[in-house]
């Protein structure tokens, strides 16, 4: 039986009548950031900031997709749900506010990196150091959202206990930035694009199967 939070998360899912006006300027901000980064990339030939943004968003798309599959197969709850008020709920754990945030998170991460790849921070390669920092910060924010009731965790192993927090770090966020490092370290723009296409192809296929063929609601 679906939990109360799951039922609320499914209510109004992908219902365009829930859209609020504040989503429009948020969309404009995201578009402006990508337009600015694209302009810089055309001038410099370095598209890594754009690639980083697309990679993190694609990884979040994948996470939210398999999270919906958890809801379907358990018929109880996804690992996380976002049942609260939103301008638009796309999936049970994914709303438009989260989408906008992760759309630019990879770009923020990229611009945090030092100029020189060989530079180390606390003994770690700088890209991996900042991957840990960004992942830890995301977990911190998620904990605050959970405490505030905006993000619901149903299962004991995915809660504020020490073990649960590590799972959220290792499964929920660290792969986002690990994938970003993998993409921007490919030798050519073509290989970077191919890696990004692979990241997106998996959740797209999962959604075609789930929503397009079997008409799952998540």
Structure notes:
The radius of gyration is 18 Å and the shape is globular. The relative contact order is 0.16. Strands 1-6 form a two-stranded antiparallel ribbon. It has a two-stranded antiparallel sheet with strand order 2-3. The chain has one domain (4-213). It is mainly alpha-helical. The protein has helices spanning 4-10, 23-44, 48-74, 96-112, 126-147, 162-184, 189-213, and strands at residues 80-81, 89-91, 94-95, 120-121, 124-125, 152-153. The chain contains seven helices and six strands, in the order H-H-H-E-E-E-H-E-E-H-E-H-H. It starts with a helix and ends in a 5-residue tail after the last helix. Strand 4 (120-121) and strand 5 (124-125) form a beta hairpin. 66% of the residues lie in helices and 6% in strands. Helix 2 (23-44) packs parallel to helix 4, helix 3 packs across helix 6 and helix 3 (48-74) packs parallel to helix 7 (189-213).
> What best-fitting shape do the alpha-carbon axes yield?
globular
- List low-pLDDT spans: none
Rg computed from alpha carbons, rounded to a whole number of angstroms: 18 Å
Proportion of helical residues: 55-70%
* Biggest sheet, spatial arrangement of strands: 1-6
Task: Tell me what portion of residues adopts beta-strand conformation.
Answer: 5-15%
- Please provide the count of β strands: 6
The ordered H/E elements are HHHEEEHEEHEHH
Biggest β-sheet strands, sense, barrel: 2 strands, antiparallel
Average pLDDT score: 96
Count of helices? 7
Quickly give the structural class: mainly alpha
Q: Domains counted in the coordinates: how many?
A: 1
Distance between the terminal alpha carbons, to the nearest Å?
Answer: 15 Å
């Amino acid at each position: 039986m679906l939990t109360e939070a799951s039922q609320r998360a499914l209510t109004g899912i992908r219902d365009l009548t829930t859209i609020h006006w504040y989503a429009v300027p948020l969309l404009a901000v995201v578009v402006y950031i990508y337009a600015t980064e694209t302009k810089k990339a055309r001038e410099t030939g370095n598209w890594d900031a754009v690639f980083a943004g697309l990679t993190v968003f694609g990884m979040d798309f994948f996470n939210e997709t398999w999270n919906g599959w958890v809801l379907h197969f358990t018929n109880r709850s996804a690992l996380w749900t976002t049942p609260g008020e939103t301008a638009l709920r796309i999936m049970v754990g994914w709303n438009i506010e989260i989408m906008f945030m992760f759309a630019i998170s990879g770009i923020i991460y990229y611009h945090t990196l030092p100029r020189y790849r060989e530079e180390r921070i606390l003994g770690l390669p700088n890209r991996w150091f900042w991957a840990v920092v960004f992942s830890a910060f995301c977990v911190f924010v998620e904990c605050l959202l959970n405490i505030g009731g905006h993000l619901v965790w149903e299962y004991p192993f995915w809660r504020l206990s020490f073990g649960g927090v590590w799972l959220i770090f290792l499964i929920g966020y660290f792969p986002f930035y690990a994938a970003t490092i993998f993409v921007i370290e490919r030798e050519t723009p073509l290989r970077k694009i191919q890696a990004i296409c692979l990241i997106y192809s998996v959740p797209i296929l999962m959604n075609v199967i789930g929503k397009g063929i079997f008409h799952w609601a998540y």
